[in-house]
Known about the structure:
The complex is a heterodimer of chains A (91) and B (409). Chain A has 91 residues and is an alpha+beta fold. Helix content of chain A is 18%, strand content 23%.
Amino acid sequence: MPTQVRIPTPLRKLTNDVEVVETAAENVGAAIDDLESRFPGIRERLLDNDGEVRRFVNVYVNEEDIRFLDNKDTALKDGDEMSIIPAIAGG
Amino acid sequence: MKALRCRECGREYPLEARHVCEFDFGPLEVVYDYARAKKSLTRKAVESRPKSMWRYRELLPVAKDPTVGLEVGFTPLIKADRLAKKLGIRELWIKNDTVNYPTLSFKDRVVSVALSRARELGFKVVACASTGNLANSVAANAAAAGMKAFVFIPNDLETGKVVNSLIYGANVIGIKGHYDEVNRLCAEIAGKYNWAFVNVNMRPYYSEGSKSQGYEIIEQLGWKIPRHTVVPMASGSLLTKIHKSYQEAIKIGLAHEAEYSVHGAQATGCSPISAAFKAGQDFFKPVKPDTIAKSLAIGTPADGFYALKVFKDTRAAADDVTDEEIREGIRLLAETEGIFSETAGGVTVGVAKKLIASGAIPADDSAVLCVTGNGLKTLDAVENHVGKTREIKPSLREFDALVEKELTT
Lengths: 91, 409
């Protein structure tokens, strides 16, 4: 089973309202490239001009923030879940 | 209100329940018509209105008259001479939101705005991701407004905070994880259920409620912006909004242009913003929280970046204190001023002490400390650190013996 990528509401216009997309990519960066090939425009929403994940975008692999892992190099394997989530306020 | 606007790229959106820019995920902010607000929001007009946060309503994001939380705010600003002496500063004030109405924390401010706006937008169900105080306030204010509430909290919160949500009949969901995990789940739930999530899709409205604390401080100081303000930071939202309230007060003529610094306080066990400040960085690294200040335990602070910018813009500082220093801060505030604050208040007092000692806040200056929540909700944090009751029989002889032995009269 490939990695499932959960698409947040603000990006679903690009994915024709699809909430979960599958990818066989080997790491987070490659998964974003894969998404771009299928949903053109999504990469520039997620990455800044330097190719880094945007300040207000949080990416999680199996519920762990990739900034605690290997950022864009974080490996993906079959059955993993990758979530893309906007930063939100405190409580 | 004119529109919602992305703080990063400036794209505008209609005034609906949405919180991030579709383009770059930047936070959306409410845009006001300041020229219009300036006409009606004069000092004289404000002073003639009821003593609640809604006396500044031109700068709070509701379209019509507010319908939830009409009594919230206008909490006391206390001149804290005894604490000032202990901390070694000329003049000190406490903005005392431990007695905010109805749930004893500053969160009543943001919730009254969020729920009033949620009603305007036609929502029947309200929800939040919370470290406790927000859950309490959403639960209580939703009950009073006849709305249904779902509150999501980490499952290890203090008993007081949990009971204070359950009592109002809210659906309380305890998540096995820390706040950042609760937050992440709520972002996903908010995408699926059409509810007013006060700190997710309602965030642009919700967060503006914090500004009322800043306006009140200015008014209570005789329409002056304090030279130094110390604010506790979880996501950093309150700090950035207090800064914004000072800017707005100058812009519309409620206060004169003046130099001011807005300092930030965190617990060492969860200090991503203070650590970034001390390292001279303008970005922060997320952390896994480990502190008794659970209301501040946010490891991925959404407004951390903007908080760091406030320190730079107002020549302010940030610092953090250990659990022991937090308890010491709570005790000091209680013993000198008779105010029992929750752990976040201990953080604020502890950090103020450090900033005064280091000279970041000069000893001959004046400062306001924002104390944001009530100690009765976090008894667990201090109960084994406050001494013990002395038990005796109802006998004068026993009492005399006790006085002689260990009490000073």
